[in-house]
Each structure stands twice: as structure tokens, then as C-alpha cells.
Amino acid sequence: MSITQQYLLDSYRARQLGVPAPPAPGSQDWQVVREWRDHRQFHAVIAGRPARGRARRALHRWWARALGRPARAVRPRSGSRSEANAAIARYDRTPE
Fold first, then answer.
1. What is the value of pTM for the model shown?
2. CA geometry: angle at 65 spanning 59 and 67, to 5°?
3. CA distance 71 to 54
């Protein structure tokens, strides 16, 4: 039985029983990938390796709340848009 056939059978059974239909196959793939990546990063932090990306920001927010401090923004990477905007602002202020 293919995934599509199983989904159609489950949808039919759900409709007969009056319960919500199951999600379509593939509709939550990206969420599963994100959760798997976050799980790997969590175990990396537990093992003593540095956190990166979403895990780092989440840990920073949690730690700031635990200490009662406001969470500050994580420093942007070099070459980011904010640095480009700052360079433009400096250029605009220079006398001609």
C-alpha cells in the first residue's frame, strides 16, 4: 500500500468516525527537519560543543530570563544589512 492509499483510507475512516482528518503526507516535512536539527544542536550543547543558530538564540533568551535580564539581540554577522545601512548613514553625514 502506498502512502497516498494509506492517507485516503485514514481520511475515509476519520470521516466515518467523525474525527479530524490526518495531515496530508509531506505537509509537515520541514517542521520535522527543523525539530531534528534542533534536537541535534541540543545534544551538541549537552556534549559541550557550542550552540549555533536557533538553538543559540533560544538558549540565550532562556538564560537571560533565568537571570532576570532583558534578552539583547545576538550580534549580526559581518556583511549584514545593518552594517551596510550604517555605512550609508556615515557616507551621508560626511561633508562634501
1. 0.37
2. 105
3. 14
pLDDT tier, 46 (very low <50, low <70, confident <90, very high otherwise): confident
Three-state DSSP class for 79?
Answer: coil
- Provide the residue type at 38 as one letter: D
The yes-or-no verdict on residue 16 having pLDDT over 90 is yes
Residue-wise burial string across 33-67, b where 16 or more C-beta atoms lie within 10 A, e elsewhere: eeeeeeeebeeeeeeeeeeeeebeeeeeeeeeeee
Closest CA to 10 of 27, 30, 20, 29: 20
| Residue 52: C-alpha distances to residues 15, 38, 86 (Å) | 44, 10, 26
